């Protein structure tokens, strides 16, 4: 697997700065930003300086096309993530019911027992 610099250097034009910004955001936040406006200009400027590209090209990065979809897929794979599936949703739901909901009801019942009132 290539290191992050090699991965970024494979990109060209506005894709390079767009990919790099998305990569670093994901690296620190473990998620992607919802909009370009969530990225501080100082961050874009800093990354552009490191890549020796014009920071204004970031505004041309397509936020809704196939390129960003592919970039997100590449970035997730690099960090060992994947998109959640329906199986993941079922697993999380079952886990929440088994561990969180059980403890929540235990706390409620304990409080009611301590207050002398138990619902029937």
Description of the molecule:
The structure is a single chain. The mean pLDDT is 88. The chain starts with a helix and ends in a 5-residue tail after the last helix. It has helices at 4-9, 14-29, 41-51, 66-79, 86-115. It folds into two domains: 4-79, no CATH class; 84-120. By secondary structure, the protein is mainly α. The radius of gyration is 22 Å and the shape is elongated. α2 (14-29) packs across α3 and α2 (14-29) crosses α4. 64% of the residues lie in helices and 0% in strands. This is DUF4158 domain-containing protein. InterPro entries: DUF4158 (IPR025296). Residues 2-97 form the DUF4158 domain. It comes from Bacillus salipaludis.
What's the quick description here?
Residues 2-97 form the DUF4158 domain. With 120 residues, the protein is mainly α. The chain has helices at 4-9, 14-29, 41-51, 66-79, 86-115.
Class based on secondary structure composition and strand pairing: mainly alpha
* Largest sheet, strands/sense/barrel: none
- Helical residues, percent: 55-70%
Tell me the strand percentage band: under 5%
Distance between the amino and carboxyl termini:
60 Å
- Number of separate structural domains: 2
Total strands: the figure is 0
C-alpha geometry: elongated
Oligomer: single chain
Element order, helices and strands?
Answer: HHHHH
What is the overall number of helices?
5
The average pLDDT value, as a whole number, equals 88
Radius of gyration: 22 Å
């Amino acid at each position: 697997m290539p290191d992050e610099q090699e991965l970024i250097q494979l990109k060209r034009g506005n894709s390079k700065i767009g990919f790099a910004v998305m990569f670093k955001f994901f690296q620190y936040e473990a998620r992607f930003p919802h909009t370009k406006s969530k990225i501080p200009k100082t961050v874009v400027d800093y990354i552009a300086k490191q890549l020796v590209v014009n920071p204004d090209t970031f505004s041309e990065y397509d936020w809704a096309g196939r390129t960003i979809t592919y970039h997100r897929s590449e970035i997730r794979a690099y960090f060992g993530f994947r998109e959640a599936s329906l199986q993941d949703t079922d697993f999380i739901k079952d886990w929440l019911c088994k561990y969180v909901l059980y403890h929540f009801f235990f706390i409620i019942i304990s409080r009611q027992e301590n207050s002398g009132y138990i619902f029937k």
